[in-house]
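Lecture notes, part 5. Sequence design as translation. It can be helpful to think of inverse folding as translation between two languages: the language of shapes and the language of residues. The source text, in structure tokens, appears below.
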């Protein structure tokens, strides 16, 4: 976590999640009769990892099994980390999400907190708003958009989208490309 006024690194959250079963998350909710075995099979199946995502991150399922923690434990740890790094108690001090192509990462965060049943805790620690249906929307800054605006006429900077998907990470060694790449480093 980085203070945007001083660029001081307040803390780094770096935990891995052990592969976990689908449970009752995303189970087919159609009104069809299913045998108990079919339901148990669906609930005990594990989420599949995208091979390209594993390649980009350098992670493997074996590594996650060996070094990962229980998803609920990581959720609690993450919420504690955010609380510890928050500089005050009013809404003005609640952190906002900053990231490169943050809408992509937001889907993972929502899945993570909905699956663990900790969406309320997530909405309590981050700055954001609720829509008329009660769904929380965190305040966020997408650095890909900022990078495009800041470097729109610079012919040397061309990797905004590629870098977000891990294809052009080498280009992040350039100071211009790194200018807007600060924020939370969360590994899922």
């Amino acid at each position: 976590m980085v203070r945007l006024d001083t660029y001081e690194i307040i803390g780094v959250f770096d935990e891995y999640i052990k592969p976990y079963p689908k449970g009752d998350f995303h189970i087919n909710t159609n009104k069809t009769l299913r045998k108990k075995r079919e339901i148990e099979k669906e609930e005990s199946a594990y989420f599949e990892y995208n091979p390209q995502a594993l390649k980009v991150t350098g992670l493997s399922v074996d590594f996650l099994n060996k070094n990962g923690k229980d998803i609920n434990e990581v959720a609690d740890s993450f919420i504690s980390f955010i609380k510890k790094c928050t500089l005050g108690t009013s809404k003005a001090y609640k952190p906002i999400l900053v990231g490169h192509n943050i809408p992509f990462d937001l889907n993972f965060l929502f899945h993570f907190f909905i699956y663990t049943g900790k969406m309320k805790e997530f909405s309590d620690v981050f700055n954001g708003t609720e829509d008329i249906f009660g769904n929380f929307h965190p305040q966020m800054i997408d650095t890909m958009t900022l990078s495009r605006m800041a470097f729109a006429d610079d012919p040397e900077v061309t990797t905004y989208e590629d870098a977000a998907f891990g294809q052009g990470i080498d280009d992040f060694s350039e100071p211009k490309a790194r200018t807007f790449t600060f924020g939370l480093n969360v590994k899922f």
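The translated text above is only one of many valid answers, since several sequences can fold into similar shapes. The longest helix spans residues 71-85.
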